[in-house]
C-alpha cells in the first residue's frame, strides 16, 4: 500500500466517526497539552485507533486527536505530535497534516517548545515564528509528488502567514503581552545543542531552535494551508546563560509560557474569518 492510500484510509476512518469538515487545525507541542482544556471537546480519537497513524513515544506528548470548539469555532487538534528523532520518517512525522488537509483544514496553528538563541529572550517567554531554517537531513516532500496534494516545487517565500502574525501581535499589544518574533531553526535532535552549535545557529540567523514544526509546516505549505507558528522559550542557548537542562526544566518553562500562548491562540482562533 502506498503513502497516498494510507492517508486515504486514515481519513476514511476518521470521517466515518466525524463526517463534518473542520477548517482550523492545531498542533499542541511539548508541555502545551493543557491548551486542550480550552477546547470544548466533542470527540476524542486515540492515535492508535487510526489506521497508519504514528504513535508518540515521548512522555510529554499525549496521543489523541480532538474535535471540538474553541472560541466558537470548529477545530481539530493534535494533542501530541511526532518527531524525526523518535525514528519515524519525515513522511510519518507529517502524516497527520496530510490527513488534516483531507478533513478540510485550511489554517494550521502550530505550537512548540524551543531553545532561545536571541539574547533579548528569557525562559518562559513566547516567540511568534516569522520564518524557519530547515536543518533536517530528510524532507517530507521527497519522493513521488501527487499534484492533487500540491506542486512538485512548492514556493516557500512566505511560509508563515503575515496576516496571522500581524493579528497575533495586535492581540498581544491589546492585552499587554510581551511577544517576540523570530526565525525558528529545525534540527533533528534528540540531544540539545552544544555551545558552539548554539553560536552557529545564531550566526546563520536563528532566534530559536527546536526538533519539530518544520516538517509539518513544509507539508502544510505544500498543501496550500495558511500557517501560524508560536514557540515557548524553555531554555537559553545564549553565551553566558547556557546550563544543563532536563525535561522537567523544559516542562516547567513551557507551563510558565502556556497561559500566554493560550490567550494568543484562543483570541487568534476567535478572530479567524
The end-to-end distance, rounded to whole angstroms, is: 38 Å
Counting structural domains, the number is 1
CATH topology group: Rossmann fold
Assign the CATH architecture: 3-Layer(aba) Sandwich
Task: For the largest sheet, list the strands in their spatial order.
Answer: 5-8-7-6-9
Q: Tell me the name of the CATH homologous superfamily.
A: Nucleoside phosphorylase domain
Number of helices: 7
The succession of helices and strands, N to C, reads: HEEEEHHEEHEHEHEH
Describe the structure concisely.
The protein has 273 residues and is an alpha/beta fold.
Report on the structure:
This protein is of the alpha/beta class and 273 residues long. The chain has one domain: 3-Layer(aba) Sandwich (Rossmann fold). The chain is built from 7 helices and 9 strands; from the N terminus they run αββββααββαβαβαβα. The protein has helices at 3-17, 90-93, 95-102, 162-175, 195-203, 214-222, 247-271, and strands at residues 24-28, 40-46, 64-70, 73-79, 107-116, 126-134, 180-186, 208-210, 226-236. Strand 3 (64-70) and strand 4 (73-79) form a beta hairpin. The longest helix is centred in the C-terminal third of the chain and has 25 residues, at 247-271. The radius of gyration is 17 Å and the shape is globular.
